[in-house]
UniProtKB/TrEMBL annotation:
Any one biological process term the GO annotation gives: tricarboxylic acid cycle
Taxonomic path: Bacteria, Bacillati, Actinomycetota, Actinomycetes, Kitasatosporales
Native source organism of the sequence: Streptomyces shenzhenensis
Record's protein name: Succinate--CoA ligase [ADP-forming] subunit alpha
Function: Succinyl-CoA synthetase functions in the citric acid cycle (TCA), coupling the hydrolysis of succinyl-CoA to the synthesis of either ATP or GTP and thus represents the only step of substrate-level phosphorylation in the TCA. The alpha subunit of the enzyme binds the substrates coenzyme A and phosphate, while succinate binding and nucleotide specificity is provided by the beta subunit.
Active site: H249
Binding site for substrate: Y163
UniProt entry keywords in alphabetical sequence: Ligase, Nucleotide-binding, Tricarboxylic acid cycle
EC identifiers of the protein: 6.2.1.5
Amino acid sequence: MAIYLTKESKVLVQGMTGGEGMKHTRRMLAAGTDIVGGVNPRKAGRSVDFADRAVPVFGTVREGIEATGADVTVVFVPPAFAKAAVLEAADAGIGLAVVITEGIPVHDSVAFTGHARTKGTRIIGPNCPGLITPGQSNAGIIPADITKPGRIGLVSKSGTLTYQLMYELRDTGFSTCVGIGGDPVVGTSHIDCLAAFQDDSDTELIVLIGEIGGDAEERAAAYIRAHVTKPVVGYVAGFTAPEGRTMGHAGAIVSGSSGTARAKQEALEAAGVRVGGTPTETARLVLETLEVRGDTVRG
């Protein structure tokens, strides 16, 4: 098992024929992703040749679903057109839309995430690296060759820190890694992923990566305390960030004591989460927790 994405997932790529879409489609195919088509109204009816297969291009997401049974779409569409692309995918009945595009206006994100919920479409992102179930499927831009299948579930606001923790724990491996994005409005939260990992029999431990700004980590801590029985290890980026400064992601804004790394660390630790001071220390805490857990099971 895994969460949200498996080897059975059939993936469309909206914007596949653009520069970024082509590059990452090639990488996703190399990782074993079952990419069944691209979407571009101006190039419908054509196909694009990759290393070992030709991928058809459809005029609409609905056409792609009807022809292939696709249940996932990855969106590489410029910000001005991203809202329309996601609305189209949701209206067509896609189950999962992974929105890689950054720079989408917040009001557009509010509109398409809300609409997607009414249609039963899960949104990952926007402004995210996507998600990967190592050895099965990769939907987005996460490097597929820096880790292996394992029993750690990872949910992260930060793409770069997603990659670092995957690499730090490459010898242990992951069930699924989800980069939810760091914008003020995202379609899938830490809590959504915590619930899914809690229910996933292949996930033994959960890593949660947060960052300054907002209260998502505090809300996740409350959820962990009430609902999560698996061990959780956390890391919060931004301990040295000045108050009131926007740091990187649009959602990472600190105001007074609200949204600070310290406040988030304290909330997580109060919920029983071991929080690392650096990514490397976080990886060490994961290994220590797994070792203790293994000794307990053996004992």
